[in-house]
Amino acid sequence: MRDFSYFRADNIEAARNAAALPGAMLLAGGTTLVDLAKCGVAEPATVIDISHIEGLNAIDASADRALIGALAKMSHVADNAEVKSFFPAVSEALWQAASAQLRNMATIGGNLMQRTRCPYFRDPANFPACNKREPGSGCSAIGGVTRGHAVLGVSEACIATYPGDLAVALVAFDAEVDLGERKLKVEDFFLAPGATAEQEHDIRPGEVITAIEIPGSAAARRSTYMKVRDRQSYEFAAASAAVGLELEGDGRTIRDIRVALGGVATKPWRARAVEDALKGKALDEATIREASELAMEGAVDHGANHYKIALAPRVIARAILKLGETA
Amino acid sequence: MTVHDMKHAASDSARLEAVGGRLSRVDGPAKITGAAKYAFEQQLEGLTHAVLVGATIAAGKVTAIDARAAETAPGVLAVLTPYTIMELRGASDWLGNPPSQPTYAPLVREVTFSGQHVAAVVAETFEQAVAAAALVKVWYDETPAIVDLSDGKAGDGIPIDAMTKEWGDAEAAFAEAPVRICAAYNTPREFQAAMEPHGLIARWEGDELTIWEPSQWLDGMARTYAEWFSIPFENVRLVSPYIGGGFGSKALALAHSAVAAAAAKMLDRPVKLVLNRPQNFTSYGGRAATRQTVAIGAERDGKIQSIVHRGVNETAVDGMWVEPLGSVTSIMYATPNFSSKQNVVRVNTVVPGAKRAPGENPSAFGIECAIDELAHELGLDPLEIRLINYAERDPHARKAWSTRQLREAFAAGAEAFGWAKRSPAPRSMRDGHQFIGWGVAAGTYPVRRAHGEAVVKILADGSVVVESSSIDMGQGTYTILAQTAAETLGVPVENVTVKLGDSHFARAGVTGGSRLAGVMTGAVHKAAGQALDELIGLALSDPRSPFQKLQANTLVVRDGRIASPRGEGPDLSIGELMSAVGRDHIETKGDTLPASTTPEERYKNYTTVAMSIPHTEGDYSRYSWCAHFVEVRVDEDFGTVRVSRVVSALDSGRLYNPKLAESQWKGGIIMGIGQALLEEGIVDRRHGRIVNGNFADYMLPTNADIPDIQTISVGIPDPHSSALGGKGVGELAIVGIAPAIANAVFHATGKRVRDLPITLEKLI
Q1: d(CA B171, CA A24)
Q2: CATH assignment of B39-144+194-281, among 1.20.1560.10, 3.40.50.300, 1.20.1630.10, 3.30.365.10
Q3: Gap from B83 CA to chain A (nearest CA, Å)
Q4: Phi and psi for B445 in degrees, rounded to 5?
Q5: What is the pLDDT at residue B8?
Q6: Is pLDDT of A248 > 70?
Q7: Under an 8 A CB cutoff, do A311 and B638 touch?
Q8: Mean predicted lDDT score pLDDT of chain B
């Protein structure tokens, strides 16, 4: 491990100033940064510890909105009574992520900055080519072991899957991330690789995530996060769906629906084609299954990840059907 | 006390501490509180740290190494390369065969697998060594690698004639059989994945070497170190007080062990070297990938006429590993015609090794799936076909079973599981979106036997110490040896201290093949019996003994007190007697070797496996047996398989401690669930490299994947298998779990998955 300098920020201004330094990286829960430093991916010149900044860990949720401080722990948000009531998909996404130990350490802001689990990205000693780490060096994953790689939002530069759960739910419900000077839709905060795989987030030097804000809605109140994976816990999604549903007064016509996908795309993936196809339609299994297939428009597989194209629409459909049953 | 008396005492004893009692692990509190100090947790003065550099190619030559940047990095003491490491002598193998090469190079110039050690950096701190290791530049001349069994360059491999088992005319009988099935079954490369990584601390004092290293075989590994460094065996001390899981991987001194010991010698400083997690997937072998075809010909009534079996396992370019794939195939069912042959194929991998039930485990996956396929073909219940073809004697060795409670296992397991309520047709049981499937499979493991020795000491205060260089890797050696000594001597178990894991104690062979408990309870029973005889002899004959004038023929010891059998005369604690006769201790060494054994044979017995006693020696064939009943739930949309219920009935003979035996059985079942559904070393075929060599990507079951598991002991004491009547426990229960799950998945979905692991994409 390389030497680095350590700076403890006591307030957000100090954090922002330090974050503008070249080679600076923020440390909150440490679950991503320490891990990436160990495998040789993160080599920060300066580590800025923001975990002691006061007032950044509040959770203020109601039917109208949820305002979650960047330093709130995943486990605290998952367990928050109002989040559970008004944004169940957010709570479910959190408690199905990682392990209890990690959720007790990891913060919401850090969670948004979580990086891909692509094994080629994570092994610089054996795989020097990685456009995320070294722009222009190539992609070791294409042509390699791709079972976990993305089928949506991929490019010739990168097919690495966005691994997180929370952001999938945030994207479904139009959440915003507060960067101080700027506020961005979470959906826009995450960047698909295109030709610049190294740029994963729309965040500039000196910017620090301070909070996320989720607008309340009927769909958010009736929502779920369904995660399919090889084992029952402590694993990233093979495919996941955050879904919210609002029905008309007749109890069967869809007024509003939100669908976002995880585990299959290079960023948290809003499936608007599915939403558009279902708005105004009856809550009917055949209709739902047919519409769910639209999520895979433009999907590109690399062999071993082909199953995701069949799997993801089924996860969407089952999540919608589950919400329908809870009417 | 005779063996017969022991059995009687145990069978009617409700006492926790007696042999057969459910005493909790005596090492448990130390482990839970963190007081247990594992091998490389020792804090030594002047300790240095070594970090390995692994090859980034799978085949080829190292052409140059530039170590200058590493050598001048902060804290670096030395960079060892193939060109600079001291020369080591070749060591004989675990069978005692002499080395094929006169010298041994743990850092290689010829690379035969990705990750193979090519250099090592030693520094004052671990962090300095890690940083400097990244600065070592290695140039290679890369050649094409054979990445796995399916590689076009792999070929058919090398026939292993010793694996051939044949009787009757299997091919002709198969061709003539009215009902035939034939299928191929594959298992991937799997890893032992112990929580505690491999590693060691090596310290030299003159020509005496002390090694702190987790070990399943202190004396075998000590022999290897002695041979590498040309020093007497007695000069090597191996210390391994606790082991955080071995599962077959920690029985041998390996290349990284040699590097650390050589570095310590070269620097004259103690060296600590611990493999990081990815290195634990490339520095020693897991279970070899296997392929089998099983063809069964049967009558319409289900009676098997012929089994034709062909197997292949991968081995290394520079090492041989045979995973005996016909081991269960040849004994599980009665058949008049049988043929099993096996090849091994060399690929660019570290030489595969032993993982829980090597051989029997993949072998059972083939035959126990095939018999299920035959049952389906015939419209028979999978349990019924197993009873129709029940082997009343060992069909291969043609000997009587010592004990085979497999019929009882099928009956007890089926009853507890509710097998009679099974709906026979595939896809006929469901709950909402979940298909439900019930599957059954049998398992077996031979009773591996050997000779052992132990020292038992009775101290002045009446307390007892048992010493052995055998080990406890979580299976309960400390506990059952305390129980054995306590019962034999008639003392409370809390008065017994068991000391293990130091090669300066009484010698012990390998802890593997489920043989330790049978060997060591026999040795401790013998040593403790001798100590008891000496104690009673003292009490009866020493002029200072209060019993001397009693004129009794014998005395009894119970609860640590010594008295006449009928209770007349004195009643003393052992400590009081020791004090009265002026003795500060009694020490006896008991072994189970024949009296004629020479010192050379003794050395060989403990430092090689060449003197193991065959399980088919004499008139009997000795095996443990089990029957697994499994329920799975398979999501109709997602293809995800979750095991929702396991009932296993097992015959391990007499159990020395049922609580610990159940724990081991459950551990094997859990490992089997991982094997069936999750575990697979995934190779990047372009580079011949494992890409999931870490605990995030190499999937192991979590608690959420494991249902309640019911185990039922159906064993009876087997006097032909061990001194106290036990058979093997630790390896048994994993055998048959993967086929039971595969069979349940077929019952649930109608899809037969013959390639492990059964992941969701194979079912959607």
Answers
A1: 71
A2: 3.30.365.10
A3: 23
A4: -155, 135
A5: 36
A6: yes
A7: yes
A8: 96
Task: For residue B110, count CB atoms less than 10 angstroms from its CB and return exposed for 0-12, middle for 13-18, buried for 19 or more.
Answer: middle
3-state secondary structure of B130: helix
Which of B86, B90, B83 has its CA nearest to residue B108? B83
Distance CA B197, CA A312 (A): 37
Q: CATH assignment of A59-113+163-325, given 1.10.20.10, 3.40.50.2000, 3.40.720.10, 3.30.390.50? A: 3.30.390.50
Mutate to test the interface with A, among B137, B140, B148, B638 (most CBs of A within 10 A): B638
d(CA A256, CA A246): 5
Residues of B in contact with A314 (CB under 8 A): 637-638, 764
User: Is residue A144 less than 8 Å (CB to CB) from chain B?
Assistant: yes
User: What distance in Å separates the CA atoms of residue A313 and residue A280, rounded to the nearest whole number?
Assistant: 20
CA distance A209 to chain B (A): 27
Q: Is B368 a catalytic residue?
A: no
pLDDT at B354: 97
Q: Which pLDDT belongs to residue B549? A: 83
Is pTM beyond 0.95? Reply is: yes
- A98-115 pLDDT, tens digit per residue, is 999 999 999 999 999 999
Q: At what angle do helices B218-228 and B255-267 cross, to 10 degrees?
A: 50
Question: What dihedral angle (degrees, nearest 10) is formed by the CA atoms of B365, B371, B376, B382?
Answer: -90
Query: Does the structure's ipTM exceed the value 0.90?
Result: yes
The sign one gets for the Cα dihedral B149, B154, B156, B160 is negative
At A64 the pLDDT is 98
How far from chain centre, in Å, is Cα A243? Answer: 14
Given a contact cutoff of 8 angstroms between Cβ atoms, the answer to whether A158 and A140 are in contact is no
CATH topology (fold) of B400-447+616-762: Aldehyde Oxidoreductase; domain 4 (3.30.365)
Comma-separated ranges of CATH 3.30.365.10 domains in chain B: 3-36+449-607, 39-144+194-281, 400-447+616-762
Residue A243 in contact with residue A323, Cβ under 8 Å?
yes
pLDDT tens profile B550-600 = 878 899 999 999 999 988 889 999 999 999 999 999 999 999 999 999 999
Q: What is the mean pLDDT of residues B194-223?
A: 98
Note the pLDDT tens digit of each residue in B508-537: 999 999 999 999 999 999 999 999 999 999
Write out the two tokens for A187.
């959906």
> B213, B373, B679, B731: which is the annotated catalytic residue?
B731
| Closest residue to B56, CB basis, from A126, A228, A229 | A126
Whether A232 sits inside 8 A of B642 (CB atoms) is yes
Query: For residue B279, what pLDDT band results from cuts at 50, 70 and 90?
Result: very high
Q: Is the CB of residue B644 less than 8 Å away from at least one CB of chain A? A: no
Look up the CATH number of domain A5-49.
Answer: 3.30.43
| Percent with pLDDT over 90 in chain A | 98
3-class DSSP state of A293: helix
Q: Does domain B3-36+449-607 fall into CATH 3.40.50.1820?
A: no
Residue range B19-48, pLDDT digits in tens: 999 999 999 999 999 999 999 999 999 999
User: Which sequence spans correspond to the domains of chain A?
Assistant: 5-49, 59-113+163-325
Please name which of B97, B507, B642 lies closest in space to residue A228, comparing C-alpha atoms: B642
**Residues B288-330 pLDDT 10s:** 999 999 999 999 999 999 999 999 999 999 999 999 999 999 9
Q: How far is B370 from chain A (nearest CA, A)?
A: 26
Residues near B697 by beta carbon (within 8 Å), at least 6 away in sequence: A117, A119, B682, B691
Q: Does B692 touch chain A (CB under 8 A)?
A: yes
Q: Say yes or no: A147 contacts chain B, CB-CB below 8 A.
A: yes
